[in-house]
Every structure is written in structure tokens, then in C-alpha cells.
Amino acid sequence: MNRRIGRKVSWFGIGIVLASGMTLASAAEPKVGDPAPAFKLEGSDGKTYELSDFKGKSGVVLAWFPKAFTGGCTKECKSFAAAGESLRGLKIAYFTASVDTSELNKKFAESLSCDYPILSDPDKSVAKAYGVVHEGRAVPERWTFYIDKEGVIKAIDKQVKTEQAAEDVAAKVKELGIAAK
């Protein structure tokens, strides 16, 4: 008898969460104003990048994408490659990131002539910390995180327009004032 009541209470609680518009996975999602989850990831250039490397020095843009060599992801990463000069002029560290292997991301970056590193998180630990990989979602959501030089999330774009992603990033970095001075 007690088991039945316990199950009903559990399902009732899940129903409340779902009815409120939340998902079970969103409970752990970082929010604007939160410290950005730490990361240490290999880039397509063979170097390892850590969020802590930029603390006190420059803001960081981390643009997650679902899968290398797919249509939307190719457009998004091409956008960043084409806008490299203007983004570097903002004196901000910027990366695209996926859960693909570093070998695949290296080939992907080379195919697009990327002048910036694509980060790899094949064990998905960082992607999960950022909330972009969650239950029911094996590849990252296409979300861009804007992190100030103190490591605080200042904005999260969940409506990325792939072909103009870098253009939108440059505008948002200026709006937020997170570029190095």
C-alpha cells in the first residue's frame, strides 16, 4: 500500500515540474548570473584550453553545436571563421564546442579553414555541466554562453541563427561590455 502512495506522489511531483514548464534536466542548467562551469578541453589546434586561463584577463564566448560536418553546424562554424578578424579585434576568447572527438573536430576545423579552436568534449562532462547535453539529448543544444572575465555567465543565447552566429556574437559582446579593454 505504501509503495503505491509513494509512486503516486513521485508521479504527481513530476507532473508539477512538467506543468510548470520546467524539464527535469533544466534544474541543473546554469543561469545568467551563475559562475560558469569550469572546463579544460582540447582544441582543434592541439592545445588545451581552461576557463581559468582567462580569469581576470578576458571574457569568453562558448558556442556549443550539435555535430561536426552537419548542415547547421557547418554554417555556424563557417560564420566564426569568416568573422575571425572582427572577433579577435574585440579581445575576447571565443570557441565553438561539441562532443565530437578532437580528431573529428580537427578535420572539421581544417575543412572550414577555421582560425579559432573548436573544443572537444567527447565524455560529455562539460556539456552536461553547461546543460546542453541532458536526458533525451545526446548531442549538445545549439546554445552560446557569454562569460565575463570574472567567470560569470552574462547571457545565454538559445536562439542561435547559424549563418550569422559570429555577427550576433560580436554585437552581444559589445552590448554586454565583456570585451577586454
UniProtKB/TrEMBL annotation:
Q: Which Gene3D superfamilies match?
A: Glutaredoxin
CDD domains with a match to the protein in the record = PRX_BCP
EC number of the protein:
1.11.1.15
Domain of life, per lineage: Bacteria
InterPro entries reported in the protein's UniProt record: AhpC/TSA, Thioredoxin-like_sf, Thioredoxin_domain, Tpx_Peroxidase_subfamily
MF terms (GO), sorted A to Z: peroxidase activity
Which keywords label this protein?
Oxidoreductase, Peroxidase, Redox-active center, Signal
Class in the EC hierarchy, top level: oxidoreductase
Where would I find the Thioredoxin domain in this sequence?
30-178
Q: Which residues form the signal peptide?
A: 1-27
What protein name applies here?
Answer: Peroxiredoxin bcp
**Species whose genome carries this gene:** Paludisphaera borealis
